[in-house]
Specification:
Layout lengths: L2 E5 L4 E3 L7 E7 L1 E8 L2 E9 L3 E2 L13 E4 L3 E7 H10 L5 H21 L15 E5 L2 H7 L3 E4 L4 E5 L11 E3 L12 E6 L2 E5 L7 E3 L2 E3 L7 E4 L2 E7 L7 E6 L1
Parallel strand pairs: 11-12
Antiparallel strand pairs: 1-8, 2-7, 3-6, 3-8, 4-5, 4-7, 9-10, 9-19, 11-13, 13-14, 14-17, 15-16, 15-18, 18-19
Amino acid sequence: MTDTARFKKGATIIHEGTTGSNAYLILSGSVEVYKKVGDEKLVLSRLVKGNIFGEMSLVDDKPRSATIAALEDTEVRILSRERFESMLEQNPRAVIPLLKQVFQRVRYLNQMVTAFCGQASTGTVELATHPLRLTAKTEEAEQAMQGKEIDISKIPFQIGRTSTSSVFGSNDLNIEDTEPYRISRCHCLITIVDNEYYVVDTVSSRGTVVDSSKIGGREDLKRVLLASGKHQIILGGEESPYVFDLEVP
């Protein structure tokens, strides 16, 4: 059976290094994923409603790789290993949402290896608790995003072209585009490394422009560090009509 649990702001849900056999689906609230490196707190991601964490414990008995703490009052649904195995036997399609997130994280790790090549940033800043805001600056961008602006509270945040051909599509923001495509299926992502925000493009065909920096596509540069303030992002190269502002708190 699945049960629910509630955690107060600041409560630790998973401790790094401990073992367990449960995964958790966020029903409300948000959590922070981090590791302790010496005396430093290294924030890895922030997850919100609809995200799953602790899923690797459903298939192995290795210690937890990070600590998960509630950023606000948070309610989760608990999925046990026994329930997961029963779902695999009786209704395999029911585990697709979980597998989508696992595949997304594997792809994310591959992108980080490509973009950083072991050269993580050295700065340490306090992770902002306010969401980032993505705003469409052109009519094409607003139509593609199906709205004027969105607040980004989940990190990492994947942006890509809408596709109905794969049941395992896992973009956080799907952008409508038509041929000849400017936006790739997995175009770019917004992430945190050493507590600093980056835009990373490793797999798009036409690249991304962040302010005056070209990344992805045919460029050797794959990432841009985002300081606090407003940044212009163009998906699909300098001539692309898909222009956005990203405000970093």
